[in-house]
Amino acid sequence: MMNSIDQVVLRSRGAHGDERPAQTERKMSNSPEISATEQYLASCEWLLASVRRQKAAIEQAADWFAESIHQGRVVHLFGAGHSRILVEEMWPRYGSFPGFHPIVELSLTFHNQVVGANGQRQAMFLENCPGLAERILRNFALDARDCALLISSSGVSVVTVEMAELFRRAGIRVVALVSVAHSRTMASRHPRGLKLPDVADLVLDTGAPPGDAVVRLAGVETPIAPVSTVGGALVVNAIKAEVASRLASRGALPPVLAAANVVGPDRSRRLFEEAYDEHGRRLGALLAGAGASHSGRAQSELPS
């Protein structure tokens, strides 16, 4: 288990310590020749290099995930707030396949209202309410053969940290995807001062800088345009591709969603139906024994 974000930073930056986007953006913002678009794309190029340096960790996550899926189990996916985007990027999308279990709570992710009923204020409050993770996972029959990918750019969302604790208590390996530099500068909101990397078996980095946004404009106090979604999408799709490679080598890759203009309309429809049926079969197993894996334990039994 990795207990220190510093270990992840060292691994992701390499022995010589590559320049982070926040440093790059400051240099570029001092040059009138660099446009906002060029600033943003330069930061994205850095993210790509950052993800490439995590190849070994991505392959480790893929080993664990492929084994869970091969055994007929699932990889649980969870993210609050905008981290929901990366949950849905993993499955279901074109080029994706069953074996992943997206857990998306609308109360934490329904952002388009912004204010009013179902607004951002409520969502940001709820994601830091102790006990919510237990209520969510109470719906599913967890199994030690499962894995989990938990996503939080800040790494301090209480619901995500507690979910990691509960998964690990059930014997489930937890992979965390965070923005390491950003998380290091954030104060924990957990009662025991924990952050998501503290309770994960493996930590991956989106590569985003503190504050996430990377474009500096003259006369504007705050940076513009976040990059954690870009880096996160690179990571989750790299994992997905590696998992598919491992399952395909065993002849055990579930049906892959494909567009009609790639495989033809009839084949595309069949693949979608087969993939959804397979997802339903795995989800049914999760729901059929709901509560059994919790054995009546309550949130209050988390370590205090």
Defining key terms:
5-stranded parallel beta sheet; disordered N terminus; 304 residues; 47% helix; alpha/beta; Rossmann fold; globular
Note down, in words, how this protein is organized:
By secondary structure, the chain is an alpha/beta fold. It has one domain (5-293): Glucose-6-phosphate isomerase like protein, domain 1 (Rossmann fold, 3-Layer(aba) Sandwich). 47% of the residues lie in helices and 10% in strands. The protein contains 13 helices and seven strands. The chain has helices spanning 5-13, 21-29, 36-52, 55-70, 84-90, 106-109, 120-126, 132-137, 158-169, 180-184, 228-249, 260-263, 265-288; strands at 75-79, 100-103, 147-151, 173-178, 202-205, 213-215, 224-226. The chain has a five-stranded parallel beta sheet with strand order 2-1-3-4-5, sandwiched between helices. A two-stranded antiparallel ribbon has the order 6-7. Strand 3, helix 9 and strand 4 form a beta-alpha-beta unit. Helix 4 (55-70) packs across helix 11 (228-249). The protein starts with a helix and ends in a 16-residue tail after the last helix. Mean pLDDT is 87; it is low at 1-17.
Could you provide a short overview of the structure?
Helix content is 47%, strand content 10%. It has 304 residues and is of the alpha/beta class.
Please state how the strands of the largest beta sheet are arranged side by side. Answer: 2-1-3-4-5
What is the chain-wise order of helices and strands? HHHHEHEHHHEHEHEEEHHH
CATH architecture heading: 3-Layer(aba) Sandwich
Rg over CA atoms, rounded to whole Å, is 20 Å
Number of helices: 13
Percentage of residues in helical conformation: 40-55%
Low-confidence parts lasting 5 or more residues at pLDDT below 50?
Answer: 1-17
Distance between the termini: 20 Å
CATH class: Alpha Beta
Give the mean pLDDT. Answer: 87
The count of β-strands is: 7
CATH topology (fold) name = Rossmann fold
* Overall number of domains: 1
Shape: globular
Which strand-content bin applies to the residues? 5-15%
CATH homologous superfamily (4th level) name:
Glucose-6-phosphate isomerase like protein, domain 1
Biggest beta-sheet profile: 5 strands, parallel
Class of secondary structure makeup: alpha/beta
